[in-house]
Amino acid sequence: MICICFPNAMSPRKRVQDAKQENSAGNKGRPSKKLEAKTPSTHTTVRIFIQLSLVGLIILFIRFLIDVPEEPVKTLAEVGDIVGKRFYSVKCSTDYDKERTLYAGCAPRTCGRGVTDTLITQDEATQLLQIAKKGLALGGSSGGASILDLHSGALSQGDSFVDVYSLLRNKKEKVFTEQDFKLYSRVKDRIQLAITSEFDIPRDKLYLTKPTFFSRMTTKPPKTVHDEYWHPHVDKYTYGSFFYTSLLYLTDYGKDFRGGRFIFTDKDINKTIEPKLGRLSFFTSGTENRHFVEPVIGGIRYAITVSFTCDPQYAIDNPKLR
User: Fold this and answer.
1) Quick one: pLDDT at residue 271?
2) pLDDT band at 193, cuts 50/70/90?
3) How far is the first Cα of the chain from the last one, in angstroms, to the nearest whole number?
4) pLDDT at 13 (0 to 100)
5) For residue 191, with 0-12 CB atoms within 10 Å meaning exposed, 13-18 middle and 19 or more buried, which class applies?
6) What is the DSSP letter of 212?
7) Residue 72 binned pLDDT confidence (cut-offs 50, 70, 90)
8) CA distance 110 to 200
9) Which residue among 18, 285, 296, 314 is the one 20 to 30 A from 232 at the CA level?
């Protein structure tokens, strides 16, 4: 047995009785000081109990989220792989049925997705990463996704876009060089050649189109719809002019950032290509290659989207230093 002893000879019950008597003797309707001292203590105890209960519920909810199994994903190319070239055929959607007549020899007759780590060198990819960093340092979205388009000059800044070339005119030092643009064009030409070769397209029938841009993805919460890159979409319908899409990655999954994998939403099982410095992924832009990018949950992800069309009215030239 544990005995809790109180100071003084008077027991707690006796003190309460005395207090009641004192109250009835001339202080009716007003609690004694002894009783008032207990009121805030009771409120504090209830408040602490509620707070602890809420914390407990939050912990249980987080554990529930962690324990929920992720949707299975098949990896077509892991970050540790060194891929000479892999190509995965998929059945074409009906998106190109009319266009095969309008753009004979260019509109996809076979569809699929390819990946290679050997088309672009590590040195070239590293130089392109520096171009992206230099340009994006001039602006940046208030949310988690920023773009730099050297063709149009569009640069994310805050919740909108500005013209990067207008910003450069106010700077004394040069940010971009002629060598930067020459490298960019050489890499674009090589990607275009890889796509025309894989899909058996005459080179003069495939054109660079817009938007073609650098992207930077961070863990910042979205501020505008442009920051919500994780929604599944089809490039052909999102951008209108795309027939073939390519992505050149400039950072490594798992090393430079976490999350941020590119996911194809196939009917049987989703498939991913893990980003890696210098890795090129390319695919037909129709419904057969519906996809999304996982939210970045750590670090910074850089890449270039290089897009191509069969419609000459949407063709754009290589960018030039202004």
Assistant:
1) 97
2) very high
3) 89
4) 43
5) buried
6) E
7) confident
8) 9
9) 314
Beta strand 154-158 with 140-141: parallel, antiparallel or unpaired? parallel
The question of whether 301 is a catalytic residue gets the answer yes
Place of tokens 């930077």: 216
Kindly report, residue by residue over 208-253, the tens digit of the pLDDT. Answer: 999 999 999 999 999 999 899 999 999 999 999 999 999 999 999 9
153 torsion bin: left (phi>0), alpha (psi -120 to 50), beta (else): left
Of the candidates 113, 261, 279, 301, the residue annotated as catalytic is 301
Total residues belonging to the chain: 322
Cα-Cα-Cα-Cα torsion 136, 140, 141, 146, nearest 10 degrees, comes to: 10
Q: Please give the structure tokens belonging to residue 276.
A: 């890696």
Q: Do the beta carbons of residue 191 and residue 282 sit within 8 Å?
A: yes
234 Cβ partners below 8 Å, 6+ apart? Answer: 95, 285, 286, 287, 289, 290
How confident is the model at residue 171, as a pLDDT?
82
Global confidence as pTM: 0.78
Backbone dihedral region for residue 3 (phi beyond 0: left; psi -120 to 50: alpha; all else: beta): beta
